[in-house]
Amino acid sequence: MRRAKGRTAAERDEPTVVRLPERFEEFYEREYHRVVSFAYALGGSWWAAEDAAQEAFLRAHREWERVGRYEQPGAWVRRVVANLAVSAFRRRLAEGRALVRLAARAGPGPDPRLQPEAADFWRAVRALPVRQRHAVALFYVEDWPTAEIARYLGCSEATVRGHLHRGRQALARRLGGPGASGEGSG
Amino acid sequence: MNGIDRRGRRSALALLQAAERLGPVPGLGELRRRRRRRSLVRGGVAAAAVVVAAALVGQAMPALRSPVTRPPGPDISTTPTTRAWPGVPGLDPRVRDAVATGPACGCPGDVAAGSGGVWVLRDARGGERDRLLRVDPGTDEVVAGIPVRESASYVRSGDDGTAWVVRLEPSPGDEELLQVDPAGGSIVRAIPLPAIETGGRVEAMLVAGGAVWIADSAGRLLRVDTTSGQVRTALPSGRDRRIVGLAAAGGGIWVASRTGLQRLRPRDGRVTLQVSDPALQRAIPADGLAAGAGALWVAGGGGEASDRLVRVDPVSGWVVASLELRRPGLEGQRPAVVAADERTVVVRRGTGLFLVAGDGSRVRGYLELPGRDGGVAVGAGAVWATDPDRGRLLRIDPGG
Fold this sequence. Notes:
The structure holds two protein chains of two kinds.
Chain A: H1 24-43, H2 46-62, H3 64-67, H4 73-86, H5 88-104, H6 116-126, H7 130-140, H8 146-153, H9 157-175
Chain B: H1 3-21, H2 28-64, H3 74-77, E1 95-100, E2 111-114, E3 117-122, E4 131-136, E5 141-147, E6 152-157, E7 163-167, E8 176-181, E9 186-192, E10 202-208, E11 211-216, E12 221-225, E13 231-235, E14 243-249, E15 252-257, E16 260-264, E17 271-274, E18 286-292, E19 295-300, E20 306-312, E21 319-326, E22 337-340, E23 344-349, E24 352-357, E25 363-368, E26 376-379, E27 382-387, E28 392-396
């Protein structure tokens, strides 16, 4: 319960709005593939993306009594995914697995699950600086408004718009498309 | 919507469709089974690592048992071993009086731990030269004492076991970086350093990314290539930037100053990220920085009876956890020194030593040390702290 000036809502004799958590199963069904997509956009490995997403949802399930009452439980899961995706051990593990699987295949090649245009785009996104990469992934994959991205990144909306602007410019240069002129829609 | 936006939307849709083609959403039971399988894989990898490590130790044993150079001094000859630890009267039983080292320099960088063993800088007394002592963590015996002339002020070890020592001269101009070979127990190279101001000191040192990084009290950061010995200034002097710690994590070199945290590119020292997460302010002014357990750890923000230890994601630069280190009696004590490995993070502030779990979730233990000064290191299966006044190296059980 949020406290204001040292008094709770009940103490101020105001009605208390209690946010009831969504059922975890509904949240999980709705978000799973998007979270895997987000993890892939950041890391570029389907195996690591699935591992990270599944671990994050298990943690969310364990903490659902608390996490489910958050304003953005989806943002919490994505933060966990981002942390897991950058864990050195997990990265090494994923790389090891990827190497094993690659060795079992005829040879390394383009991602068969993605069209070349999309594969090139996400490869270019992964080459962006970290905060631009997160902002761009959340903007396109999650279709989040800049206000939500700002809360996720812990910065102002103006900063997010800057990240998106510079990210688009870098993508345009890298992919050979037209430059970025538009701002992120709110 | 411009071309990049249209392509971004199309690519996002393709990504989502590809994710859906991976299969239906797995049930929670299936997730738990997959997690168990991942744990088994991790266990298998860990077991394989143990087997490989045991084989390597087996190969190295003859070298460890070879004749060693013992430093002079009566205190060294009475070296206790793990079989006869006297302990420190009145202190926590987890603190063991591992070995007599003679007086250490009492600076934050007077001890380092790594694959080459534990290294301690022994301060010169009575016309002797400073010595770099190598302690075998298996037996807690001093197995080498290497003369490093005078004014040795900082030691750090690299992944290959090599130790690096910075020597400062009373008058600027003769500063050196010494490379010490752990196998031969001798100085194999002395690299001249640019002059450090009179009365200046080394604030932090790190061996990573093919270089030795040295931060001095003028706010300057030097990068010394470990292969060529070439010395470059990565960050120029800056009176408003007092560097308090260096660490390597997430593919970058991290520099903590009193007022912030930034990441440098290892190959040329170019600044690639300035951490702007407001949560970092909890640990500002910062006292120390370390990398371990997949994270960066910044200690500071105190000055009174409590400090903060914040955990920073080394790729994104986000603060992902924050822990208060509160203990009466810390007022007026030395700034915090922090060290970490894959399982343990330690913060030493004067006589207090906090042992923090590797996930940053809790303080696992608090110990009182006999002396206020000295460094701390984590590695070779233990936490190591110098006790310069008593001339001892303390070994601390990190717990589980």
